[in-house]
Amino acid sequence: MASPWVFGLLVLAFASCSLVQADGDAVVLTPDNFDDNVGGSQAALVEFYAPWCGHCKKLAPEWEVLGSAFKKIPSVVIGKVDCDEHKDLCGKFGVSGFPTIKYFPKNSQQPEDYSGGRTADDLITFVNQKAGTKAKVKKEPSYVTILDKSSFEKIVLDPSKNVLVEFYAPWCGHCKSLAPTYEQLAKVYAGEPNVVIANLDADNADHKDLASKYGVSGFPTLMWFSADDKEPVRYESGRDLASFVSYINEKAGTHRTESGGLTDEAGVVESLTETVKDFLAAGSDTRQDIYDKAVEAVKTLTSTQVPYGQTYLKIMKSILDKGSEYVTKESGRLERLLKTTLSPQKETEFSIRKNILRLFN
What we know:
Blueprint: H1 4-19, E1 21-23, E2 26-28, H2 34-37, E3 43-49, H3 54-69, E4 76-82, H4 87-92, E5 100-104, E6 112-113, H5 120-131, E7 145-147, H6 152-156, E8 162-168, H7 173-188, E9 195-201, H8 208-213, E10 221-225, E11 233-234, H9 241-252, H10 273-281, H11 287-298, H12 306-322, H13 325-337, H14 344-358
Parallel strand pairs: 2-4, 3-4, 7-9, 8-9
Antiparallel strand pairs: 1-2, 3-5, 5-6, 8-10, 10-11
């Protein structure tokens, strides 16, 4: 049986944990723990909010980033108070609208109202200036193309691009849940020159006309804008990575795997298959004629297939100039390159070339 002092320590530890509750990396403040976290040795930035408040919902993801930025800086508390639940605490500080943000210096419960911008960058800059800290926003590079009013038509309606657009709202829970998968999807297609994975903040006042134009009434709404036909099609398939990849491969004629690689069919043009067989079977005296016919055949390909057709022609020309051993040497070179660190575009280019080159073995 545990001794009384061990039991006492456990009770104390439990009590201490109950004083600091976290919502993400922000401290959930209540009448029970407010004085322990605000007005002492730490500076504090506190959001007084209501769960039903639309502006509070918009601020929520920025507040999460703010909390993460100061998570490992013990001299600052990023907190939040639910004013529906703790009306007296909010009334004590004269809160009458939501969200209200107040800065509490060290050793003081006489706050300063915050009236600056509400992005994570704005909030972090403010706290750094007030508290003398050097917190930074940690942002991973994104592969998702961010659209706005000025870029929407240029990117989405580009006849050379297949574009998947997510119309979202920053406060939308389903949008937040989709975000990691959508980022993975954008990374999968980062090497595809004719596929764009994009999103638009449809709740932004500047973008509501666009949302209305395309009949967006809920979030997230996903629409496919084909390169061949810019009349949008609502995406109604699954929201897992496999479903997205399958859909885009079918619609755009791509051959991506869920890991971002390419299948063996990528770059292969079926109409040139017989031409390759004839070229390999022909003697050196007739290969030039077959090459000339291939040049004409490439001219009849679709815009998507033309770059692949050009690769076929380059390989044929190299064999004519350098002999059949070119295929072995070039295959080895590509194998070595693909083991190095490459941009998504270069990895795609070399993988497709390798696929096509394989047909000449």
